Amino acid sequence: MHGKADRLKGAKAPKNQQPIDSSLQHRLPPGQSLTEKFPILHEGEVPAYDLATWNLRVFGEVEEERTFTYDELKNMQQSRVVCDIHCVTRWSKFDAPWDGVLFTDFLKEIKVNPEAKYVMIHADPDYDTNIPLEDLMREDILLAFDFDSKPLTLKHGWPLRLVVPHLYFWKSAKWIRGIEFMKEDREGFWERNGFHNTADPFLEQRFSGESIPIPEDEWTRKEFD
Ligand SMILES: Nc1nc2c(c(=O)[nH]1)N[C@H]1C(S)=C(S)[C@@H](COP(=O)(O)O)O[C@H]1N2
Ligand SMILES: [Mo]
């Protein structure tokens, strides 16, 4: 019997929507297909917030727990990251421009315990994803407010999402509300549900082996902008 994860594993990438220039080919991970669209993918309902009460909580292996308001984050050093993004459902998008706070700048505000080696990103609605702290120390990890010089749309994660360019896009949690520093690794939502713990698109680390309810061409039928 073939599970949906097995079908996705064996599936060919959808036909490219656009021909890809050979000089760009090295930027497209194996099994991916390039799109200029911006598909919208998530579990559950798009959350609604009042920015006056919205906050971001930092907890776990830290010297003291902190809660940041929207304005406090907006007043930190803002930076731009332009990156390629790769979704496990086989779409990739090049040169996505994001603006926000570099994770390394954000960390200057926090005293992380030396024992902390992993991070759990907590997001609405009931979403989480785990990433090694070392990965988040890269120079292109962003807490993003804006995409394409405009505030994130509600469906793409307004008011704040994480952007982790070097891992499959499910690690780039939308609607983030909490950052938990951890001594030991723990699995997030998709990692518990059959996706790979590490998620390097160039190594095609899509699955850990269990069944996943996502058909291979799902993204082509999804909403996008
Ligand atoms: N909070 C939250 N963030 C999430 C998800 C989710 O279900 N909930 N899905 C992830 C997945 S699987 C992908 S591919 C990207 C999609 O982001 P986009 O809709 O902006 O393209 O969001 C990621 N972040
Ligand atoms: Mo995804």
UniProtKB/TrEMBL annotation:
Name of the protein in its database record: Oxidoreductase
All copies of domain Oxidoreductase molybdopterin-binding, residue ranges: 44-190
Pfam family, one: Oxidored_molyb
CDD domains in alphabetical order: arch_bact_SO_family_Moco (cd02109)
InterPro entries registered for this protein in UniProt: OxRdtase_Mopterin-bd_dom, OxRdtase_Mopterin-bd_sf
Polar residues bias (residue ranges): 15-25
Region (Disordered): 1-30
